[in-house]
Amino acid sequence: xxxxxxxGGGLVQAGGSLRLSCAAxxxxxxxxxxxxxxxxxxxxxxFVAGVSWSGNLLNYGxxxxxxxxxxxxxxxxxxxxxxxxxxxxxxxxxxxxxxxxFDVTYVYWGQGTQVTVSS
Length: 119
Fold this sequence. Notes:
The chain is mainly beta.
């Protein structure tokens, strides 16, 4: 089991920045790939960013490319999401997720942290 806890959410004005963190505990070696997702009421969960175990393979959802940066520190078991140039459309609950090396879908999920961007 991998336990994930997000932090860093809050209220920010449009154009501002926030940094989210996701702390992993338990069988952290099972968090081979980690990612961020977000969801707003009435909408499907949206992929935001993902990072491989090495940190070298990164991918992003189209709506955040060029504004968000994902990274991880395996020594500290932390994944981060630097969010710049925030827009009101970025308002959502952001979830941290992880999956093992051979998992097709994300298996482990955090409880989520609210990000609100005011116009």
